[in-house]
Structure formats: structure tokens, C-alpha cells
Sequence to fold (154 residues):
Amino acid sequence: MKTIQKKSTCLVSDRAYHAIMTNCLNIMTEKNVSPDIFMAVIMAVKEYLETGRLSHRPINRVRNILDLFRPEIDRAIRRAASARKAADTRRKAKQPELEQPEPEQPIQKNKPAPRLYPSPVKGALKPGEKPSAPRPSRGTRCPGIEHFSPNPVK
Fold:
């Protein structure tokens, strides 16, 4: 089943869009910007995120505030464009593999059991391998400790 990818109206990712808008709102709220300028800046930022340019010439106060966010917006636009280009390249590279008809193979009725462990277990025997003799002891671990025991072995 193919997945349908919705086309974004913005030049940036949804995550970047929300981060930029939140940052814009927070800074303007901190600076106590008047409501008319606040709305004009929001509209200018949305327009810049959707088209990459401003169609009208904003007033100086809006332009000054917009210039605070412009480097972040431009960086997000460049990042999204390169990510979309890389995704398109990957999609095109994967496309020929999908178009080739696969040779029909007989359907196996018995599937092999899935492995219990994803990788070989340390010390596990391979098919046809015999267990080796235990390693010889190097001696007692703590010589002379038997006389420290509360119940000495005699």
C-alpha cells in the first residue's frame, strides 16, 4: 500500500514552522508589541515562510521585527530544501528496484522459526561442534581464607 504524502504549503518543515512561530510570538509578547504591529508581523512571517519573499513592502517597525527572525527563517528554508532534495534522490534511487518484476519463487509452507536472540550468543555451540573441556583452575581464589570462616570446614 502506497503512502500518500501531503504537499506542504510552507517552504519549511512543520517542526521548523511551529518553532519559528512560537519564537516569534514569545519575543513579541516579551517586548509588549502593539496588537496591530503584532498581527502585521505574524502575517509577514507566514507569508515569508510560504513564499520565501514578501509581496508588499512592510512598514519600518514590522520590517525591523521581521529582520530579527529572518536569519532563522532563511536557514530553515535552506535546510528544508536540501532535505527535500535528498529525499527525492533517495526516492528516485529506490524507484527502479520497485519497478523490476520479481522472479516468482515457490511459496514455502513452513517458515523457519524466528531466532530467539538477534545475534549469536557468546559461548553457544555451532551445529556439529562438540563442547570443549572446562578450563583448568589456576589455583584457589583466596588462599588461606578458610580459617576466616565462622564455620570452618574440617
Observations:
- Residues 60-99 form the longest helix (40 residues).
- The chain is about 50% helix and 0% strand.
- The helical segments are 14-30, 35-51, 60-99.
